[in-house]
């Protein structure tokens, strides 16, 4: 039942277009509740995968590729504004962008953000994670020795 309801909520958010000639209140109500419905859908998916009811979706979301991307995403979240500021504030005059140049600029900036996030991950995040694992192992070893 959860999958049916959550799939309906996702369908409603994606394809449930309100009549553009409708009242401003209807349009505002639909657009204000849409993020809540998306959140309900993703909450159900998270709950279902966590409790073992995810099936193929859980297997897909558990791929190693997503683990790598998740480690870079937080660094990218922290650093993306620095990269964007550096890029856009380096121009001294306005630039007229075409659609193609916007796409190429976005790809260029995305690659820079990923590269800097990877370096940030290797310098800061990975050593801290290894330190946590080290202390966790020591704690587990001491706990195991005390129980024996």
Automatic annotation (TrEMBL):
Question: Which UniProt keyword terms apply here?
Answer: Membrane, Signal, Transmembrane, Transmembrane helix
The residue ranges crossing the membrane are: 36-56, 100-124
The record, for InterPro entries, names: O2_lipid_transport_reg
Q: Which residues form the signal peptide?
A: 1-24
Q: What protein name is recorded for this chain? A: Acyltransferase 3 domain-containing protein
